[in-house]
Structure formats: C-alpha cells, structure tokens
Amino acid sequence: MKITSVRPWLIKSDASYWGEFLFVEVTTDEGVSGWGEITTTTRLANRALCTILRQIGAAVTGEDPARIEYLWHKIFRSFTYMGSRGAAVECVSAIDIALWDIRGKVLGKPIYELLGGPVRDEIALYTHPNQAKFTSNEAVIREIRDIVESGHTALKFDPFPHQGRTADGQAREQRDGYLDGSMTRKDEREAAELTALIRETAGPDVDILIDAHGRFDVPTAIRLCRSLEEAGQIDWFEEPCPPESLNALRQVREKVSAAISWGERGHTKWDFVPVLENRLADYIMPDVTWTGGITELKKISALCEAYYIPVSPHDAAGPINVVAGAQVMMTVPNFYKLETSEWNLGKYDHLIDRPLDVSNGSLKLTPKPGLGVEMNRDYLQNHEIELD
C-alpha cells in the first residue's frame, strides 16, 4: 500500500465557532483513506496550513502509510531549520491521525486496540456553556442547568469580558489575544459575579474550570485567580499568562491556590518536559490536532503518567478532534476528562456518517475500525471553500 495524496478540505460550517473546519484526507492506492483535522483559530492560519499540506503531500506520496513513526519524523524534521513547532507540527498532527485511521481500517481494529487496548469503557467529558446565551442571570442559570441535567460533571468557561474597556471607558482592541495583559476592576467584578452565579447554579459536585486564554500579565493573573477562587471555588485556572513564558507561569503558580492547567498551545513532548520537570501545572491539556497527532499525544500522556499528572485533551474544533483524542484516552490511565466545545454534539451530525454516542456526560466509541467515523463527503464537496 502506498500513499497517493494528502488533501486538505477547508469547509464552511456553522458548527464551527470560527465558521470553518480544516480536515485532511490521506488516500492510498488500495482505496483505503484516513481522516485528520487541524482546524485553527484564524482563517489566515487555516489557509496557510492548506498550502503547507499540499507541499507535504508531494513529499510523502509513494510512502507506506503503515510507517507512522517514520513519516512523523520525516515531516517534522523537514521543518527543523525554520522552526518545527506551530504550523509544521500541526500539519504532522493531521496526517498522523489520518495514518492511524488507515492503519486501523487495514487491520480491522479501532485505534485504541492498536495503542495497548482500553483501560475504560467510555470517555468522560467536560464541556462549555454557550456564552452567547448569557444575556441575563436567568439565561445563565438556564444554560448551566441544561448542562448539569445532561449528566456532565465539569464545565469550562471564560468569565472575562473579551473586549473589555480601559479605565476611561474606551473599548479595548482585543479578544483572546494578549494586548497589555490587564483588566479593569469593573470587568474583574463582573467575572467574579458570573463565576459565583455559575457555581451556585451548578452546585458543589460539578467541577468549575476557568479558561483565561493566556491573556494576562503576572499580577493581573494572580489577582483574577484569587478572586475566582473566593467567588466560585474554581477547580482549575487555565493558561493564566501567554504560553511563551514559563517563568510567568511559575510566578502565578507560586501565588495562587487553584490548580493550574496548561498545554493547548504546547507542541510535541519537548514543550511539555520543562512544565513537568518544574512542576508548573496540575493538569496537562494537549490538543491532538495541534501537538503532534495520536502518536505524540500517547507519548505526552506517558510523560505525564510518570509525574502522576492527569491528561485532559483540548478541543476547539470538529468531530475528528474529539474522536482522535478519545481513541488515545481509552488507553491512558492518568486521564481526567476530554474537552468538547459544546455540550450538545449533535452539531456535528451533518459532518459525519453517524452521530457521536454521547450520554450522561460521556462518549462511547464505536468498535468500528480506525477512528470509527467517516466524513460526509457530499457535505464536504458542497461546502468546500475554494482557494486560489
């Protein structure tokens, strides 16, 4: 069997927060194909990745898709002198996932059977409320109650006003990106009030997870975390500072009581080693579509196991992200929960051949070979974004 193509599919979809998904299909000369994904958080990045993927496709055409580890390194090392993180390893991730999908289909086994077999029967999830619905306290309460009643025992949200305002009342030009790292006292109070309301509504038995999206400088992150610890008894504080500085992360960790979560912007096992060695996080949350694929997520999980640190894969994309992360977590002892971007995953039904089996806050994987899902090719063809 030989690889015949690597094809990016950039798809317009209302199911994506970003308005589009980026899937990757690897085809072979024996008619078996596999699916991967690397949806990123900007349209600019998605289009750049499509260009890189086409070049990688030419480089791996004719290779044996069963040589997954070899192909991981062949692609990864091709970018060594321009920087092998970011776009390079995200392309590796998508192709790696697709190769594992092919391998499972060829052998007639789900991927988790090829990674050592399952250590659990289903995958516990944590999820997000739809904060666009947070138009009043009553609306917040309805959304949180719906999540709790669905059986989820953990939920994550970003309580901080994304635009925010400066001290003189002017709108700030930022959303999730780092601008100056600060936040007004008024916005801080609003964040604490929202967190307190969600904790009160969810009750004491639901984990409340806070995502700061790496937006804050050290003193602001410390102050915000302490405020939310008091207001909502939070269970983790995620990415308090921009991920480029582990020294900043260390300073925050030394001054707060809440558990620290880190890792969605960590690329490859090498990014996670200093975090583990220096005890900078209580939870590690790699994204299978960004950090190096199934191959690398399994290795990162083993590193974390040596430190007794739970792994909780990140998700901000589509159904391939969810099922690929779940395939690995079926085999990982030190697993916390798998993230899903919304609690009702029916939004993916039009993209795949069958709905994901989610009930009582858990995902049950099908025993079908490979990833266990196929993309809806008719939908992809009808909603593909054409690039020059």
UniProtKB/TrEMBL annotation:
> Which CDD domains would you find in this protein's record?
MR_like
EC number of the protein: 4.2.1.6
Has the keyword Lyase been applied to this entry? yes
Give the molecular function GO annotations. galactonate dehydratase activity
* Pfam family membership, one: MR_MLE_C
- The record lists the membrane-crossing segments as none
Which keywords accompany this UniProt record?
Lyase
Report the residue ranges that make up the Mandelate racemase/muconate lactonizing enzyme C-terminal domain in this protein: 137-259
Show the PANTHER family listed in the entry: D-GALACTONATE DEHYDRATASE (PTHR48080:SF2), D-GALACTONATE DEHYDRATASE-RELATED (PTHR48080)
Q: What is this protein called?
A: Galactonate dehydratase
* Species for this entry: Rhizobium leguminosarum
